[in-house]
Every structure is written in structure tokens, then in C-alpha cells.
Automatic annotation (TrEMBL):
Gene3D superfamilies: alpha/beta hydrolase. GO terms for molecular function: hydrolase activity. This is Alpha/beta hydrolase. Residues 71-170 form the AB hydrolase-1 domain. Keywords: Hydrolase. Pfam families: Abhydrolase_1 (PF00561). Signal peptide: none annotated.
Length: 278
């Protein structure tokens, strides 16, 4: 009995230690910032800009104008995103006609501050307002949130009117993701940043496109299936076969899902690279 009690006590102490570590270091389990800044390459259509938040942070961003009749995309990256490393994608989007404001979250790639749920919501708000103040009409703005960035995108769409919302590999909530990866911990008690996309999406009143990889093992496609069911706005949900969490763009997400979705909303935009006259 004493040995059994001792083993039980050691196991309980170990469990509590793991839970305490998860609570103390949870930010390191959610956010993976690469703070290395980077400028758009020479000859790129992008310029480096700064976006100021209401709580005093300065965010780095890349900006390029849209062709006439085409939308401007506010791009909100995931928890391991790095704007300078994604320039290849931004240039593809811009060649297709879309304007781009690619925002670097606080604490990431040249931006000040430390990431948090409240902070990312403030960052998304600041990015949207920067476009409005720059003269971009709300009706020409499309907000595109990837993975972690999908929650601030939904929050922004619940608070503001703009043209459309695109969610790439979104999740129900931080708690739902944590429960799937750490089912042995009481994550509902431990989490500070909860990102309740499932509670916010019913407040969105604009067309929504949800794109998910059928082979996503990080955020399984059932998350977006449930989100689509919770939304009150019209939802187009597209699964891309063989695409994982980070490979949707490489697997044709824009060509097969995003551009067709936006073509009805922007009929004067061809969503194709301009032909260069020689």
C-alpha cells in the first residue's frame, strides 16, 4: 500500500509539474515568432510600410496596390508566419491583380511588442484601418486569415463591414486544438489566449470562403466543417485533396478556390497575371 501510494504521489506530482509548465510557458506553445526583419527585394512591386496600433506598437508590413477593379487583400499570417519569407506568394497575388497588405504580427519580423490574443486582434484592426486611411474603400477589402490568423480575421469581420472573408485552415478555438494535441491536460483551465472563432463567426455578415486541406494533420478539416455550420452568413467551403496545413497555396488554393470565389464579387478583375507587351 505504501509503495502504491508513493507511486501515485510521484505520478500526481509529475502531472502537476507538467500542467504548471504548460501554464507558465503556453505562449511558447502558441506563438513561434521569427523576429528577423526583411525588406521587399529590389524591383518588387512591394514597399515596406509601418502600421501603428492603438496600444502603441509599430507593425512591419509589405504593401502593393491593386489593379483597377481588383480587391485588396489584408493578409493575416499564422503562428509561425514570416512576411519576408512569403514574398514569393505575395508577388503571385499581386501579379494576379490583387492589392496586398501583408501584416507582421507584433513580435514578428520587424514589429514591436509581444504576441497575445488581445494584441493580435488590435493588430488586425490596425491593418484594416491603415487600408481605410490610405483611401482603400471597405467594399474593395478582402480579409484573408491563415491558421492562427483566421481568428483575428473573424473578429475583424464581426466588427467591420468589408467585401468578403477568407479563412485558410481555420480552427474552432485554441482550446479545441489544445485538447486534441494534449488531451491529458485540463487545457480549459490553463489557457489564457482562447481564440473562440466558434463563438465569433455567427456575428459575421458577409460572404465567407473557407479553404482547408483534406490532409491537414495540424488543424483537421473537421474544424472548418463545424465553423461553416456555425456561420449565419453564406459560406463556401472547399477541401483541397492532398493539401496539408502549410501547402494549400502550392496545391492551387488561389486558382481553384479564391479567385473563383472573388470573381463574382469583382467582375472587372481578371485575376490573372498581366501580359507584358514586347
Amino acid at each position: 500500500m505504501r509503495l502504491a501510494a508513493l507511486i501515485l504521489g510521484i505520478a500526481a506530482a509529475g502531472y502537476l509539474a507538467v500542467a504548471a509548465l504548460a501554464w507558465a510557458f503556453q505562449a511558447h506553445l502558441i506563438y513561434f515568432p521569427n523576429p528577423a526583419a526583411g525588406e521587399p527585394p529590389q524591383g518588387s512591386p512591394f514597399t515596406a510600410v509601418q502600421v501603428d496600433t492603438e496600444d502603441g506598437e509599430t507593425l512591419a508590413a509589405w504593401r502593393a496596390a491593386a489593379r483597377p477593379g481588383c480587391p485588396t487583400l489584408l493578409l493575416l499570417h499564422g503562428n509561425a508566419g514570416h512576411v519576408p519569407s512569403s514574398g514569393w506568394l505575395y508577388e503571385q497575388l499581386n501579379r494576379a491583380g490583387a492589392g496586398v497588405l501583408a501584416l507582421s504580427w507584433r513580435g514578428y519580423a520587424g514589429s514591436t511588442g509581444t504576441p497575445s490574443e488581445a494584441g493580435l486582434y488590435a493588430d488586425a484592426e490596425a491593418g484594416f484601418m491603415a487600408l481605410i486611411e490610405d483611401g482603400t474603400p471597405a467594399g474593395e477589402i478582402v480579409v484573408h486569415g491563415f491558421s492562427l490568423g483566421s481568428a483575428p480575421a473573424v473578429r475583424l469581420a464581426a466588427d467591420h463591414d468589408f467585401n468578403a472573408l477568407i479563412l485558410e485552415a481555420p480552427f474552432l478555438s485554441a482550446e479545441a486544438v489544445a485538447r486534441e494535441s494534449m488531451p491529458f491536460l485540463p487545457v480549459g483551465w490553463l489557457l489564457r489566449d482562447r481564440y473562440r472563432t466558434d463563438e465569433m463567426i455567427a456575428d459575421v455578415d458577409m460572404p465567407i470562403l473557407i479553404v482547408h486541406g483534406a490532409a491537414d494533420t495540424i488543424i483537421p478539416a473537421r474544424h472548418s466543417e463545424r465553423l461553416a455550420a456555425l456561420a449565419r452568413a453564406p459560406v463556401t467551403r472547399i477541401l483541397i485533396d492532398n493539401a496539408g496545413h502549410n501547402t494549400l497555396a502550392q496545391n492551387g488554393m488561389y486558382e481553384t478556390a479564391v479567385w473563383p470565389f472573388l470573381s463574382d464579387r469583382f467582375p472587372d478583375c481578371r485575376f490573372a497575371a498581366e501580359e507584358v507587351e514586347v
